[in-house]
Design a protein that fits this description.
With about 170 residues, the protein is an alpha+beta fold. Helices cover about 35% and strands about 25% of the residues. The chain has a domain of about 120 residues: 3-Layer(aba) Sandwich (Cytidine Deaminase, domain 2), CATH 3.40.140. It has a 7-stranded mixed sheet with strand order 1-3-2-4-5-6-7, sandwiched between helices. The radius of gyration is 16 Å and the shape is globular. The two termini are about 30 Å apart.
């Protein structure tokens, strides 16, 4: 249930232009009630997409256009909250399956990014994700605290179990 809403040319080698587009997207869709995505492809095109409250599927632009792309998407924010959770394991699977470059996310006042320095399979990601989540759970259990943003906390631990994974907060 994803639609391409716009397609514009962009110089994929112009890092300043790309960051301007990423930041403009973040401002525009931080509190959107459905998921949106901006795919900046090495083919020289930039694709704007709209999905549903739970998903935006960038594969609609084609696998060749996705390969090596830089992307940003949003996660809708619950009413009364100032941000939603970070990247899901599904986001990581999608990135590795389609050989994406750096990925960005906005959700209210959340601004996160990740990238893979090494290639990984979905099984490797799943195993590392489980280990990182178990460590987060153990820490909360030991401290008598509650996990608020499960994905965010798991991502913070993931580099310990997945070589070449980089997670950035507050881009």
């Amino acid at each position: 249930m994803t639609t391409i809403t716009d397609k514009k040319p962009i110089d994929f080698n112009d890092e300043a232009a790309i960051m301007k587009e990423i930041n403009d997207f973040a401002e525009k869709y931080a509190y959107a009630d459905v998921e949106h995505a901006l795919e900046i492809s090495p083919n020289g095109n930039m694709y704007s997409l709209i999905g549903t409250t739970l998903d935006v599927d960038s594969v609609i632009i084609g696998k060749e256009s996705l390969k090596g792309s830089i992307s940003i998407h949003n996660h809708p924010v619950e009413i009364g909250k100032n941000k939603g959770d970070s990247f899901s394991i599904k986001d990581l699977w999608f990135a590795t399956k389609n050989n994406l470059r750096k990925q960005y996310l906005v959700s209210g006042n959340r601004r996160d990014a990740f990238e893979f320095i090494n290639d990984h399979t979905n099984d490797e990601i799943s195993t590392a994700w489980k280990k990182a989540y178990n460590k987060v759970s153990e820490n909360h259990w030991n401290n008598g605290t509650e996990i608020i943003f499960e994905q965010e906390e798991t991502l913070r631990e993931l580099h310990k179990y997945l070589k070449g994974f980089k997670f950035y907060e507050n881009f």
